[in-house]
Amino acid sequence: MLPTTGPRGPLFGLAVSAGCVLIFVFGFLAWQHPSQLSSFPKSTTHVEMTVTSEGNPKLGIHEIIRQLYQPLKIAPDESTFSFIGEDLNLTSLSLPFLPRYRKPMGKDVLILDLETRPLQSTEDFNNGVFDWRKLNHVSGGVFSHYIYSLIHGYDYKFVRAHEFEDRHATWIKPSALAQHIRDYKFIVFLDADATFRFHHLPLEWMFNYWKIEPHHSVTMALDPWDPEAPDYNADRFNRTYTNTGFMVVQNNDHTMKMLKDWHECPDDTRYKGCSEWKFPKFHEQSAFGEYIRYDYEDHVKELPCAEANGFPGVEVSNCQGKYVRHYWFEKDKIKEDLQQNLMNAITLPIQRIFAENVGGVIFEQKENNLPS
Question: 37 forms bridges with which residues in the sheet?
């Protein structure tokens, strides 16, 4: 990847805000329902915290997340999506006429995380030393993907794969996708340093916006291309690579054959010379760009780098991560995005309390006099 030109944002206050998340969530739900928070043993850090209501079933964290985001969620065929960008200006985007995906696909979609390494946060948790401030970008990205799947009802898998002995670890992607695609209409894969910018915006809306059609087996975003370094992210034909850090894989008649050819590429079975990319940059990504996409041209959808790659501060190719962000550098900003998404969802109902004076929290003082 090409280096960013933007400054690194401060992380001060990140832990404090994130640490308040669950307090706000459970406090809000306790206020919303005449319920009582269940007590927790002092010696436990039980993750399935619950809210109990008389006559109502317990609510797990899965349902709490869904309820929290329900007021924010965008419909798959919502004609317009508006958001406030980093410049604090309002941006509105419109779907094409007669969008294809009009209903949530739920469990027909798999959000896939794929790693050869264990999560450091799991080891910390098991040792009783879990701390948000020390959470690395890998766990931050995985948590973000999982929360996103809960919000929209997608299936989710975190796959621990064994590494190859004769090629780079990232070569696990084609075979892992092939092992699961038959069970789903779509698999959406993200690297741990990639994330959805808006948790409340569903995949179906983005598929409509990008015009992903039934014949598209794989959708990826282009990498940045810099005329001052034209060979860096380009193949032997000077065509810009697509980035495998975010992929939409659709189950159609061409997908399994494409994944098979991709997986076998470094064995030089069909593509002589592909073994060059067993270890050099960018491994499976270079092989896809050099060989696979040319045999499956009609079934590969390439997205602008600005929409599904990069992050704020990257000027090359305007790779600002409009919908999907990929932090090639400054990876800790994954945690900032997660924090901002959660805090936006939490503070919306709090703001509604003050805007609508729920419970009479606002008292109008007509005269500024001392009591007699």
Answer: 51
Range of the domain at 326: 77-333
- Specify the pTM: 0.84
Q: How far apart are CA 190 and CA 168, in angstroms?
A: 18
Counting the structural domains of the chain, the total is: 1
> Residue 54: inside a domain, yes or no?
no
Dihedral over Cα of 304, 307, 311, 317: its sign: positive
Q: What digits encode the pLDDT tens for the residues 299-352?
A: 999 999 999 999 999 999 999 999 999 999 999 999 999 999 999 999 999 999
Q: How far is CA 260 from the centre of its chain?
A: 26
Task: Tell me if 4 is assigned to some domain.
Answer: no
How far is residue 75's CA from residue 71's CA, in Å, rounded to a whole number? 11
Residue 301 to residues 211, 218, 220, 243, 298, Cα–Cα distance (Å) = 9, 6, 6, 12, 8
The answer to whether residue 99 is domain-embedded is yes
The DSSP bridge partners found for residue 240 are 234
pLDDT tops 90 at residue 28:
no
Question: Is residue 58 one of the residues assigned to a domain?
Answer: no
What is the CB neighbour count within 10 angstroms for residue 291? Answer: 21
Q: Report the percentage of the chain scoring pLDDT > 90.
A: 78
CATH of the domain at 284: 3.90.550.10
